[in-house]
Design brief:
Layout lengths: L5 E10 L7 H10 L2 H4 L4 E5 L8 H14 L6 E7 L9 H13 L3 E4 L7 H9 L11 H53 L15 H13 L9 H8 L3 H13 L9
Parallel strand pairs: 1-2, 1-3, 3-4
Helix pairs in contact: 4-6, 5-6, 7-8, 7-9
Length: 261
């Protein structure tokens, strides 16, 4: 760990689905560190499940801080700020391993809702290790005291590590409970005769397809306009195959297949 340093903070936020909002996590981070308002380039965001390994923005941030940590000329210490531990990882084993890897590289981790497991707590525990070796000349006495000292040090580190692991374990447990509640809710709804999801065969059009069809109806020659087929699909911003599909749907009053908006 570098001796004299200034802190560079990054914020990582993540939601599990594309429909969920990311703003709340950033707002929480800004309340503690207003600097993120002036440094949007330090905010990294993913919309994917925490159990998924391919998290593009996390992978990008990870490479940045690791490269900094391994660069002897880099004079700052990096810190990644999370809203909560589940934003970092939801698998306890992988989360804890990642935590220790980043910590040992000198990278700080801060969890706004679980401050007790910030790397600063772990660092303080390591600083509290008794770094003495007793040499009284009495082998039995020295061995006893040194054994006790080593046991105390090990206990201190294990206690902090247990707290960290439990936090990741709790996050993993919570997502399992959420999935279980969703599954139970779906089963109960079906048992009560309620419709779950769209009926089979339901066709749902996207805003893009609606707009493209409006252009076809207004401008294509076969519908009273002045444009050729090629000119029409170019204006609508769609490919040739999609154009003819939409055109058939307009001509024959049907929707061949669907895309959920």
């Amino acid at each position: 760990v570098k001796g004299v340093y200034t802190m560079t903070r990054y914020h990582y936020r993540r939601v599990s689905t594309k429909k969920q909002k990311l703003e709340r996590q950033l707002s929480n981070a800004i309340r503690v560190y207003p600097e993120f308002l002036d440094h949007p380039e330090r905010v990294f965001s993913d919309k994917c499940t925490g159990t998924k390994l391919d998290r593009p923005d996390w992978n990008r941030l990870y490479k940045i801080v690791i490269n900094h940590a391994e660069n002897e000329n880099y004079k700052e210490r990096d810190c990644i700020v999370f809203d909560e531990v589940s934003r970092m990882a939801r698998n306890a084993e992988e989360g804890f391993a990642l935590y220790k890897e980043l910590f040992l590289k000198g990278i700080d981790l801060e969890f706004l809702k679980e401050t007790h497991i910030n790397t600063e707590s772990y660092r303080k525990a390591m600083a509290g290790i008794i770094k003495i070796k007793v040499d009284t000349g009495d082998e039995a006495t020295d061995k006893m005291i040194n054994t006790i000292t080593e046991a105390v040090n090990e206990f201190m580190l294990k206690k902090v590590e247990q707290d960290i692991y439990k936090a990741f374990e709790q996050a993993e447990h919570e997502v399992q409970l959420l999935h279980q509640r969703i599954s139970e809710g779906l089963r109960e709804a079906k048992a009560n005769g309620k419709r779950v999801g769209l009926p089979k065969g339901t066709k749902v059009e996207t805003q893009k397809s609606v707009k493209a069809k409006e252009i076809i109806l207004k401008h294509n020659r076969e519908f009273g306009g002045s444009l050729t087929d090629k000119e029409t699909w170019t204006l609508a911003g769609i490919c040739k195959t999609t154009y003819y599909k939409y055109k058939r749907e307009l001509q024959y009053g049907c929707v061949e297949d669907s895309q959920v908006s």
